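## tool: complex_structure
## caller: assistant
## args:
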Amino acid sequence: MRIPHVAPIVSIRHVFRAFWPHMQGYRRYLVIGICVAVFAAGCEVVAIWLFGRITDEVLAKQDLGAFWAPAILWLGLAVVAGIAAFIGGWLTALAGERFLLRLRDHVYDHMQKLSPDYFENRRLGDLMARLTDDIEAIEELVASGLVRLVTVLISIVFFAGAAFYIRWDLALITVLLVPSFLFVSKLFASRFRSAAGRERLSNGSMNSVVEESLSNQALVQSYNRQQTEAVRLHKVGRTWMTAKLSEARLAVGYGPVVQVLETICLLVIIGVGAWQIVQGRLTIGGLIAFAAYLGYLYPTIQNLGQIALTVSEAGAGADRVIEVLKSKPSVADKPGAIEIGRGQGRVEFANVCFTYDGRANATLTDLSFAVGPGDVLVCTGPSGSGKSTMAKLLLRFYDPAEGSITIDGHDLRDLTLRSLRENITVLHQESLLFSGTVRENIAYGRPGATLEEIVEAAIVADAHEFIEELPQGYETPMGQRGRLVSGGQRQRVAIARALLRDAPILILDEPMTGLDPAGAARVMTPLRRLMDGRTTILITHDLRLVPHSTHTIVFGTAGEEVPLSVNGHHEPLPLADTACGCKDHRRHRTTVEAHRLA
Ligand SMILES: Nc1ncnc2c1ncn2[C@@H]1O[C@H](COP(=O)(O)OP(=O)(O)OP(=O)(O)O)[C@@H](O)[C@H]1O
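## result:
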């Protein structure tokens, strides 16, 4: 398990360069959103000016007749500004949510191209957090954050401009104090960024613990490990809480610091303003309007600081998503890779060697064999000797370090991954099912299959009978990972799915694991039907369950040489040999070497 770490911090400019292209098509919404928000800010500027006029013309002169015109104009502006703010907010939300949807799809697409070892080396909960919370944080930066930022900047110009218009000398004092705001914001933002990075990381860890623990509840409860799991969650929860509190301390600390700065400014302005009124250079309405502009200007500047904090938080999420997007699949289609459609299913390994990254010893050394339609290649040997690795190489989850693997004469590296995998069906140790209905699970083998085809596959897989007895027949939900039905029933549903898929090559990885002899025998009949006419690679420890074999490979362990028999079968396989239905072993002659355990 890779130790989780805080993703490398990338600059905000880099974040925009990475994600702004995903905003294509929605940018006009943002532009309209900004324009409308700016218009609303302009309305506020005029409203404050009207307030000043009411003070001077109505209140100071005690002339009620002068009240109505500015009052009606003010009300009209408030309504128009309200409508504008609604439209702006809605368009921004629309652009933000669509961007979010598109970005999540993009990151998920990329994730699905990464090789299985990427997922084996990471915690699922953490990856889930990257797909949800972290992507939302990016939206807050690239869509709504951008609109807020531009709107705030333009509003500052408006309010400061209006303040200058009323009294340039007072406004100058105000502006001179702005750098102190920016300095404080910068100080807080950099600290917030590192706290946000820790928060994102521990959020991922928390998700991982919940995901692992809830998906293994049967194990947790049967081993009475509820307390351990609760402690585990509490521990990561505490780390998250500490990071969150650091963020909160900075966020709530920022407000009061700025408030004090604001108060200093306001007192200076009122003092200078009062002196100017005494001098007769400023009216009371003018000072009130000026103070009102400051009342808008300072919160707007404060908002700017808040945006800087949000941007810091979003940047921390963006770092983690960028890290995913930068990960490259260990295998990919080469330029000009070909599609082969449904092949015959001849498989050949020629002197294949393979070592996992970070492992000192080779897992497979000089593995060679050739099998074709109708053949059953039984792969057996001790645990960890490389049987499943061979299947992974055939599926091209990895490329061999040396040697070649071909299907119908095509090197796997020359085929598109899609067309290669269309030719192979894998039946795993534990039937991998989804939480959908029985029908959906069988149809997973061939999207678009009709109900008749699904039922036909289920009949051949000997699953129809039990499916009919389920409460809603084919529409019965199978529960999380298909756990609402028995292991044998799950396996028969998986066989029906494989039958529907109809690929020429079949990999059976311990298909009887977890089944009692009666259950195994029940599965064996449909399995034989599935194997009929296909090239089957059967990985098993239990040779008693091998129906018949035409070829056998015994994978060795470190330092142990496994003797080969004349027909390519290893000595310690009496059952497989006796059960072999092949008339001409020489035709299926297999070259097999002992393999080393990594
Ligand atoms: N993703 C991986 N990264 C590094 N090493 C791995 C990885 N997967 C498997 N191995 C190692 O490669 C060796 C072969 O593993 P493999 O799963 O192929 O064995 P196996 O013969 O199928 O075992 P079993 O019968 O127990 O399923 C083992 O030592 C294992 O630890």
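## assistant note: Residues 12-326 form a domain with the ABC transporter transmembrane region fold fold (CATH 1.20.1560.10). Residues 170 and 269 are 6 Å apart (CA to CA). Handing back to user.
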